[in-house]
Design goal:
The chain has helices at residues 13-17, 19-31, 40-52, 111-128, 148-154, 157-160, 214-225, 227-232, 270-289, 310-324, 342-348, 376-390, and strands at residues 56-61, 65-72, 78-84, 133-140, 165-173, 180-181, 186-188, 190-199, 203-204, 239-247, 254-255, 258-267, 294-303, 306-307, 329-330, 351-359. The protein is an alpha/beta fold and 392 residues long. The two termini are 37 Å apart.
Length: 392
């Protein structure tokens, strides 16, 4: 670092005093990424710091998960705050001096930043001791492959470490830098997958009349699937059906026996999700039949939507407004169509998932993405204030 990082004026003093340390820590995590379920070194460093600061630390929860607890006063309430820390199988192309040292692995979603933010807040909270109750800081592995939250829950997360509310955040490029965004109800989409095999009868490309062409049927099916949202879903609801993969055939003059399509399906409510799960297979089969072909649909339900709880979202929004004012808050941010396994935590306990704007720059999961270190100070300040208000 050539110059110290400057904390914005509203930063908690304990965060501001050690900001350079946490910027360096974030860049250390960025330089040493670990894939989902293999985050042992990262988990070890997280645990080491938390023990040093006086937390009771449990490791190995749901794989490499870490939970840190700190009690103060006689209060009976407990707050859970979660950060994720796994990386992605992407080759970094930032050219930064602290770029990934692991070929083909990088922090392209900001989990290095999320973890650093929570660690900075953990340090401030331990120094301030301005709360009455129990902090539960949850460092979750394997978010990118959607298994970490469920693994921690199966490992008794909420029975071993009870909380009265749980909160998480994600940085978001394209939202103004340092501005906090809140979504009431659905905040991120449910994600499902369909693998569609269109089976016909192959043959010579010069004699298509002797075949049942699955390529033609599949091409029409790709178009027909777009009618699921435009003609089946209420225009005031939201959904996405995207065919991202289509494979069939090996030569230009050979009609294959079958073609495979893969689609991602995104929705925000159980009703829309159920309707798409019913209509997509029916449409695929009918469309294939129109060409004399058959369609086999393997419809796989994935993660549920991230659905924020009303009282906790209102509380989280008010904490941001009281700390940063109206200029620092988007009170009603539009839901994101990406997915997040924090959804499973919100199925178990009341809470809220929120966003902090990363400003302009490459999108998440881009090989050119890098977490914006200017977010560490406001986000760590926010977690500190939120926890103290929750445990007032």
């Amino acid at each position: 670092m050539n110059a110290p990082f400057r904390a914005p004026p509203l930063t908690t003093p304990e965060v501001a005093a050690e900001l350079d340390r946490f910027v360096a820590l974030r860049r250390h995590f960025h330089q040493n990424p670990e894939l989902s379920t293999k985050e042992r070194q990262t988990a070890g460093r997280i645990a080491e710091l938390l023990v040093e600061w006086g937390y009771e630390v449990e490791t190995g929860i749901g794989g490499e998960g870490v939970v840190a607890s700190l009690r103060n006063g006689a209060g009976q309430r407990a707050i859970g705050i979660r950060a994720d820390f796994d990386a992605l199988p992407i080759a970094e192309a930032t050219g930064l001096p602290y770029a990934s040292r692991s070929p083909g692995v990088m922090h392209a979603c900001g989990h290095d930043g999320h973890t650093t933010i929570l660690l900075a807040a953990a340090r401030a909270l331990a120094l301030r001791k301005s709360f009455d109750g129990t902090l539960r800081l949850i460092f979750q592995p394997a978010e990118e492959i959607s298994v970490g939250a469920r693994a921690m829950i199966r490992d008794g997360l909420f029975e071993r470490f009870p909380v009265d509310g749980i909160f998480g955040l994600h940085n978001w490029p394209g939202v103004p830098e340092g501005v906090f965004g809140f979504a009431d109800g659905p905040a991120m989409a449910a994600v499902d997958k369909a693998v569609i095999t269109v089976a016909g009868k192959g043959g010579h490309g010069a004699a298509p009349h002797e075949t049942v062409d699955p390529v033609l049927a599949a091409a029409h099916l790709v178009t027909a699937l777009q009618s699921l949202v435009s003609r089946n879903i209420d225009p005031l609801d939201a959904a996405v059906v995207t065919v991202g993969s289509i494979h069939g055939g090996t030569a230009s003059n050979v009609i294959p026996d079958s073609v495979e399509l893969q689609a991602t399906i995104r929705s925000f409510t159980p009703e829309v999700r159920a309707l798409l799960a019913e209509r997509l297979p029916a449409l695929a089969q009918a469309q294939a039949a129109a060409f004399g072909a058959k369609a086999d649909v393997d419809y796989r339900l994935g993660m549920p939507a991230v659905v924020n709880h009303a009282a906790e979202t209102r509380f989280a929004r008010e904490a941001a407004l009281s700390t940063f004012g109206a200029a620092g808050v988007i009170e009603h941010l539009r839901p994101r169509s990406a997915s997040e396994d924090f959804a499973y935590f919100l199925e178990q306990r009341p809470g809220a998932f929120l966003f902090i704007g990363a400003g302009e720059g490459p999108p998440l999961h881009s090989p050119r993405y890098d977490f914006n270190d200017a977010l560490i100070a406001p986000a760590a300040t926010y977690w500190t204030r939120l926890a103290e208000r929750f445990l007032a």
